[in-house]
Design a protein that fits this description.
This protein is an alpha/beta fold. Helices cover 45% and strands 14% of the residues. The protein has helices at 22-34, 54-68, 83-96, 113-125, 137-140, 146-153, 168-178, 192-196, 212-221, 228-243, 250-258, 276-288; strands at residues 6-10, 15-16, 19-20, 39-42, 73-77, 100-104, 131-135, 158-163, 183-186, 202-205. Strand 2 (15-16) and strand 3 form a beta hairpin.
Length: 292
């Protein structure tokens, strides 16, 4: 089993009154660990990374490590649209005890593919922990090309990619281009089981906040059972739709509050809590699955 494969939860960050709610955060980590997840991402998209201070990221990482010790892998999101800042973030993450860095494609600047390669190579050269590329064009606009991924995969410190385009065909092309040792982890809950049935090594997930045990079971069965993806979608497809009725992590934080894992569904601006209409639909699915 490859390092950082399997089920990794991209941890949401709870707030109360605008401040970190470490008590709820620890409860989430405990719930996840009890249900067998293989790792965590701290300070990712689902964690509302653009709104967190450096001190807050450290507190979240410390709380995570305090709960799991060395039993579970802990990855920290360090990416930004500044190469210099990302290098600094990654060095800091290593000092704090992160095992690897998840580095998103630079957003807003719209670099060329050559610029993206230079960006990630500079980070890899200046990092003492391994780098996982994060391709999520729905949020960054710019996407890594197959050729750029192939070139970056040759760097010894670039160990894998979180592929969140939702394009299963592109995921298969990545595998053909980079070989079997390079980590390919899905970043799209809707397609992760299907990707893992062929070329994927796991998923960095949002829905695992809600159904960690069920998703892990599906991932373990998918290589042996070609129908596992269909069965998972049939059972949990409506929940997936409800979670994503509004921008992530709005839905998952509402669900965690309904499940009493979080004391609040509060987000930081510019994100707002889930609308009453969407909340009603989400609660219907949670009740149907006996999650609340």
């Amino acid at each position: 089993m490859k390092k950082y494969s399997g089920l990794i939860t991209a941890l949401a960050t709870p707030f109360i009154g605008g401040e970190l709610d470490i008590s709820s955060f620890r409860r989430l980590v405990q719930f996840q660990k009890q249900n067998g997840v293989d790792g965590f991402v701290v300070n990712g998209t689902t964690g509302e990374s653009p709104t967190l201070s450096t001190e807050e990221v450290l507190r979240l990482l410390e709380a995570t490590k305090a709960e799991v010790g060395d039993d579970v892998s802990v990855i920290v999101g360090t990416g930004s649209n500044s190469t210099k800042k990302t290098i600094e973030n990654t060095k800091r993450a290593k000092e704090w005890g992160a095992e690897a860095a998840l580095v998103v494609v630079p957003y807003y600047n719209k670099p060329t593919q050559a610029g993206l390669v230079a960006h990630f190579q500079a980070i890899a050269e200046n990092s003492e922990i391994p780098i996982i590329l994060y391709n999520v064009p729905g949020r960054t606009v710019t996407a890594l090309s197959l050729e750029a991924i192939q070139e970056l995969s040759t760097h010894e410190n670039v160990i894998g990619i979180k592929e969140a385009s939702g394009d299963i065909g592109f995921g298969r092309k990545i595998r053909e281009a980079v070989g079997e040792t390079f980590l390919i982890t899905s970043g799209d809950d809707a397609t992760c089981i299907e990707l893992c049935s062929t070329v994927g090594d796991g998923v960095i997930s949002v829905i695992s906040h809600i159904i960690p045990k069920q998703l892990k079971q599906a991932l373990s069965e998918v290589k042996k059972n070609s129908g596992a993806s269909k069965l998972f979608t049939e059972k949990f497809g409506s929940l997936l739709e409800a979670i994503y009725l509004e921008s992530n992590p709005i839905g998952v934080k509402r669900a965690l509050a309904e499940m009493e894992v979080f004391d609040s569904a509060e987000l930081r601006l510019p994100l707002l809590e889930m609308s009453p209409e969407a909340t009603a639909k989400l609660k219907t699915e949670l009740v149907k699955l006996e999650l609340i």
